[in-house]
Amino acid sequence: VLRRRFGTAAVLAPIVVGAIVAGGPWVVALILLVTARASYELARALTLPYPAAFGAGALPVLLAVPFGTTGILAGVMLGLPWALFWLAGYPEARTLRAMLALMLMATWVGAPLAHVYLIGDQTNAVEGVYLVLVAVAGPWVSDSGAYFAGVLFGRHPLFPSLSPKKTIEGSIGGIVLTTAVIAPLANLFLGLPLWTSALAGVVVSVVSQAGDLFESILKRLLGLKDLGRALPGHGGILDRIDSLLFTAPAVYYLYTLFLT
Amino acid sequence: VLRRRFGTAAVLAPIVVGAIVAGGPWVVALILLVTARASYELARALTLPYPAAFGAGALPVLLAVPFGTTGILAGVMLGLPWALFWLAGYPEARTLRAMLALMLMATWVGAPLAHVYLIGDQTNAVEGVYLVLVAVAGPWVSDSGAYFAGVLFGRHPLFPSLSPKKTIEGSIGGIVLTTAVIAPLANLFLGLPLWTSALAGVVVSVVSQAGDLFESILKRLLGLKDLGRALPGHGGILDRIDSLLFTAPAVYYLYTLFLT
Is residue A118 within 8 Å of A64, Cβ to Cβ? Predict the structure, then answer.
């Protein structure tokens, strides 16, 4: 999983970073593309009509642009009548799995991705780009640290029943590398005191690992080995963004609490 | 269902209206009580530990007080690591139904109820009380209109497969009575032009009926006749508040769009 993730990162990173630096509408377009692909995976996996899944995910993203956090919340709330429309009109969608897919698209996919847009939408453009990179690339740093620390020192399993390959040593390695990378940059770009910068690094890594674990549990719940199997030869996008779905809100609220 | 609802309304209305008029902390306390009871019902019905359900519902409510809509959204987002904590730590909670219960508590129960607090939290106290009453008592008016119009004129079923007793005539009666009651009051208390007031009445009734239908579908999905059966002799609170869970966000966003 980690090695595959590094490979994809090398291909996708330039596109993602380019859109982030270009900002505004490019970020929204990229988020909607990701939402579209995630909808495809969840809709297939949980047998929900594709437009139902995409609408639930896109509503919070589209409303975030004019209305900020209030728009994201309104989008999540609109997801309930939206779900009603599909469940009432499409009896084949009237299942527990379809209902869960709709709620996951709004709360777990659309709303967190909408935070990526808000993070970048700062009056200070450099600050915005830096913050989005923390949310997007923080998990890559955390995963790298965890991978190498796990290979070198990994002895004690972290959650043996959920994720047999993860070790406590790897988890700590992820936290250490993320903090080592993020803290000096936060100090430089945001003028944060070092201890706050270090705290941000720790939080980003912990939250990134939590996002990964959340997706593992979800796949297990749904009885799916890999949500991305829908397209042969391609990994799932949800596997790629699982950490981002947790780091994006975390970075947004940390920033809002400490810096505005 | 309607007759039982009228009976309960007569008992609960004075308490609810009293808390609304007293305002602020009383509304929050009432919302948390309702959340606690709703958690009990959903946790029993979907076999989730009770504190897990209550926490997911209470987070958006508690964060709404200092942080408004941003706090509600942050509460819903925090529901994901909260869900992870319970799903990781309590293998017996690691089911589709428990996961759905957690998401419903945050998105369908906690977040909409938190909007009730925000609706009442206006600088103009009379306006706040009036708006909360529209969200809370609007469904009672709509149900009454639907009940009597249904008994008198009901011929054509509205959703025969979902709710055999509901008729198109009843639904229209609900819309007419709600508009007739709300429009003059909105004109009087908020100084809204009559057509906007009428629109508000129509939306409140439609949304109220949608909330009722949403709960019907949900119960059917979960294979439950009555979520409230958990306590013998008592009806379920979710049956009581199903419409409010849709009218509260609707009233909040209508008000925000048209009047602020």
Answer: yes
Distance separating alpha carbons of residues B228 and B218, to the nearest angstrom: 13
Nearest to B103 by CA among A224, A111, A52, A91: A111
* H or E, element range at B164: strand B163-167
Whether B2 contacts chain A with CB within 8 A = no
Backbone phi and psi for residue B165, each to the nearest 5 degrees, phi listed first: -85, -15
Cβ–Cβ of A100/B104 closer than 8 Å?
no
Helix H or strand E encompassing B94: none
- Each residue of B63-91: b (16+ CB within 10 Å) or e? bbbebbbbbbbbbbbbbbbbbbebbbeee
Contact A96/B97, CB-based, under 8 Å?
Answer: yes
Q: Is B169 left (phi over 0), alpha (psi -120 to 50) or beta?
A: alpha
Structure confidence by residue, pLDDT tens digits, B239-256: 889 999 999 999 999 999
Through-space distance between the first and last CA atoms of chain A, rounded to whole angstroms: 37
Composition of chain B by helix, strand, coil, percent to 5:
85, 5, 15
* Interface-testing mutation among B92, B96, B242, with chain A (most A C-beta atoms within 10 A): B96
Residue A13 scores a pLDDT above 50? yes
Query: Rounded to an integer, what is the distance from CA A186 to the centroid of its chain?
Result: 21
Residue A130 tokens, joined: 């830096």
CA distances from B107 to A75, B87, B183 (A): 11, 18, 29
Search chain A and give the residue with CA nearest B92.
A221
Largest interatomic CA distance in chain A: 56
C-alpha angle A120-A24-A81 in degrees, rounded to nearest 5: 90
pLDDT tens figures, B53-88: 999 999 999 999 999 999 999 999 999 999 999 998
CA dihedral for A233, A48, A37, A255, sign (positive or negative): negative
DSSP bridge pairs for A167: A157
- How many other C-beta atoms can be found within 10 angstroms of the C-beta atom of residue B62? 20
